[in-house]
Design goal:
heterodimer, A: alpha/beta, 3-stranded antiparallel beta sheet, 8 helices, 12 strands, B: 256 residues, alpha/beta
Chain lengths: 318, 256
């Protein structure tokens, strides 16, 4: 931020910017698109994505969605791979604290808006909460059908046999459906939808969720939504039903056996440990401050494994 | 018996140029119709028009579905047309790479039309795929190999299996044997003849190879300059050609 805009007003926000960074016209445009998205669950709505002060792929779609819906009374939580204290999450949280002056939190229960990348919080969401996903590629068919016009046609006529071809290939090559993230779902028995790169462990949480789920893809300029209490079915075969990941370990910090675990290598001798990827859930289970210090010491290791996983995801996309 | 497909005065234009003009024919269930002619005679345009890939300028095209319902194909809605293509029709491309999905295994290639019409049981899809690989004389042990690792003739047979797996009633083929060497061609023709007889398939085959026509076709249409110049039973047309162009065509075949 340059010197002219650098001055801070009494409430801690940066002067010279509109509330939540985007101008009001842009927010109206995004809200209109969001209304359409909620009206047609799982259907991708085009919108005029704006340049944001961070690169595509870092959450521009999620930020624009959050900026369009956030109000002064909202409490914002931002997570990246389940964690509140990774670079992306910290930066986005600070961005809204400085441009909108809203309260921020790391507690899932206290938040009214949760912007997320790659995870759904372990703590069940309640009515009135909004989950905003950052989506790199909203089109679940794009690897299989390169023509955009043809993809739209397949959606319009709900011809989704092609998606099963991918799952078939998975079984042929790996003996089971090896898709572990961005696992395709059918929303409201109609639209094939990419749930963003959340692990398939989180797919059951999409189904009949009490919270409103909004998806923003900045680079691809698409918005879509899963309204509260909407049916979401993960694709599968009759004889190879959808299954979520299981771990032989419990979280080494909180002992949870129900949560999604990150595997971390903690020294140069290959020693590894499994901990919850949802840092807030883990901290709540351990109780208060003690857990947050544990997490602070683990930060370095967590960042490492996070980067590894991001690299892996990028490689698979390339 | 009512015809499966009947065309009347079918005309397709590319701007001012003529693709095919005033083509009429009836195709009955189980009948193989060959369209022969030189390059640029409008054979492929006619096939494209019948397959509803090229928009016809005028004429009519009627198809009777498995339920006995006559459909006016030229005014058919797109969802209905796509459903028809998936369930009752097949299209074998000249180049198998256009008709196959080259990045997925051959089993998935055969299974895709099944999954497109709602099959969701992996074991059954796989069983049908390997069964069809055997029927088109492919090694069922190669069900997980990519089509790219197959030879041209094998790819063509794979494409045929993929088209026949849903049990279509009408299959359109555009030069199915072009680009294959003669021994592979002979085996493919033999296979096609067996399959069309077994499955009681109606076929429209476009070819420039009189030999293919003689071996496979019940009836023949000879095209020149976008028009049908002669039509009739295969033996009749080939043994006693009436039109000068047909006479030229038949006499141009190199004797072995």
């Amino acid at each position: 931020m340059n010197a002219r805009h650098g001055a801070e007003s009494p409430d801690g926000t940066v002067a010279g910017y509109n509330f939540a960074y985007l101008d009001e016209q842009t927010k109206r445009m995004i809200r209109r698109a969001l209304l359409k998205a909620v009206a047609i669950p799982g259907h991708q709505i085009p919108f005029g994505s704006r340049e944001m002060p961070l690169p595509y792929g870092w959450g521009t779609g999620g930020i624009q969605t959050t900026a369009a819906i956030i109000g002064r009374d909202d409490t914002l939580k931002v997570i990246d791979q389940g964690s509140d204290d990774t670079t992306n999450a910290v930066n986005i949280r600070r961005f809204f604290a400085r441009t909108a002056g809203v309260k921020t939190t790391t507690r899932t229960l206290d938040a009214t808006i949760i912007q997320t990348r790659h995870r759904i919080p372990e703590t069940p969401l309640r009515e009135g909460q909004i989950l905003v996903y950052q989506v790199p590629m909203p089109e679940p068919l794009y690897r299989l059908e390169p023509r955009v016009a043809e993809c739209r046609k397949l959606h319009a006529l709900s011809e989704y046999g092609l998606m099963n071809v991918k799952l078939y290939e998975d079984i042929v090559r790996h003996g089971s459906i090896a898709t572990t993230y961005d696992y395709p779902v059918i929303v409201n028995d109609r639209y094939l939808t990419a749930p963003s790169p959340i692990p398939k462990f989180d797919n059951p949480k999409l189904h009949m969720n009490a919270a409103l789920q909004l998806f923003g893809a900045g680079r691809e300029r698409r918005l879509y939504a899963i309204p509260p209490y909407t049916r979401v079915r993960s694709l599968d075969f009759d004889d190879y039903p959808f299954e979520i990941q299981r771990w032989e370990h419990a979280c080494e910090i909180c002992g949870s056996r129900e949560s999604f675990l990150d595997e971390m290598i903690v020294d140069d001798k290959g020693k590894r440990m499994f901990v919850c990827s949802d840092s807030d859930y883990c901290a709540q289970r351990v109780g208060g401050n003690e857990a947050s210090t544990v997490h602070a010491t683990l930060d370095e290791a967590a960042d490492l494994s996070m980067n590894e996983r991001a690299d892996e995801t990028e490689r698979e996309r390339a | 018996m009512t015809p499966l497909l009947s065309a009347r005065g079918l005309t397709t234009r590319y701007g001012a140029r003529i693709g095919c003009e005033d083509v009429s024919f009836d195709l009955y269930p189980g009948e193989v119709l060959c369209v022969v002619g030189e390059s640029g005679s409008g054979k492929s345009t006619l096939l494209g028009t019948v397959a509803l890939r090229v928009q016809a300028a005028s004429g009519s095209l009627t198809y009777v579905t498995a339920h006995g319902e006559p459909l006016n194909l030229l005014t058919l809605s797109e969802p209905r047309r796509r459903l028809l293509m998936r369930t009752e029709w097949g299209f074998v491309e000249q180049n198998p790479r256009d008709g196959l999905r080259m990045t997925v295994s051959s089993g998935a290639n055969i299974g895709e039309p099944l999954m497109a019409v709602g099959a969701r049981h992996f074991g059954k899809i796989r069983e049908t795929s390997s069964d069809w690989m055997r029927r088109v004389e492919l090694d069922a042990g190669r069900i997980d190999d990519l089509p790219a690792s197959f030879s041209g003739g094998m790819q063509q047979r794979l494409q045929i299996a993929r088209n026949l797996v849903t049990g279509p009633r009408l299959v359109l083929m555009d030069e199915p044997t072009a680009g294959l060497d003669v021994s592979v061609q002979a085996r493919l023709l033999d296979l096609l003849r067996t399959l069309t007889a077994q499955l009681h398939l109606a076929c429209i085959i476009v070819t420039h190879d009189i030999g293919v026509a003689r071996l496979l076709a019940h009836r023949l249409m000879v095209m020149q300059g976008g028009r049908v110049v002669e039509a009739g039973l295969t033996d009749q047309v080939l043994d006693d050609p009436q039109h000068p162009y047909t006479q030229l065509l038949v006499s141009s075949v190199l004797p072995v």
